[in-house]
Design a protein that fits this description.
The protein is mainly alpha-helical and 99 residues long. Helix content is 95%, strand content 0%. It is built from one helix and no strands. The N and C termini lie far apart (135 Å).
């Protein structure tokens, strides 16, 4: 190989090296972007898990509150019915002369 051929080959190797360096730099940038995206996804996943827990807690609280309201309503109805029955019985007793 002549000196000129060697110089051409060296130039080709240097050109390829520069090209490869540029491509590697681009890949490094993409990897960095991917790492940031994965970190964001991990944060979103954690927030989703936190929200799931909060929603379950809220559902439990709502069920508890609606259960209390239902029990209270049942109690009011029961007491109202007992009062009405007591009034009717007292009226009947007063009509037949008992009391």
């Amino acid at each position: 190989m002549t000196h000129e051929e060697m110089a051409v080959k060296i130039q080709q190797v240097e050109d390829r090296s520069k090209s490869n360096t540029k491509r590697l730099d681009e890949i490094d940038k993409k990897l960095e972007d991917n790492d940031q995206m994965l970190a964001s996804i991990a944060r979103l996943d954690q927030r989703q898990k936190d929200m799931d827990g909060d929603i379950k807690e809220i559902k439990t609280d709502v069920k508890s509150l609606t259960g209390k309201a239902g029990k209270r309503w049942d109690s009011v109805i029961e007491k109202t019915l007992l009062t009405v029955v007591a009034i009717i019985v007292a009226y009947i007793f007063s009509k037949i002369g008992i009391g």
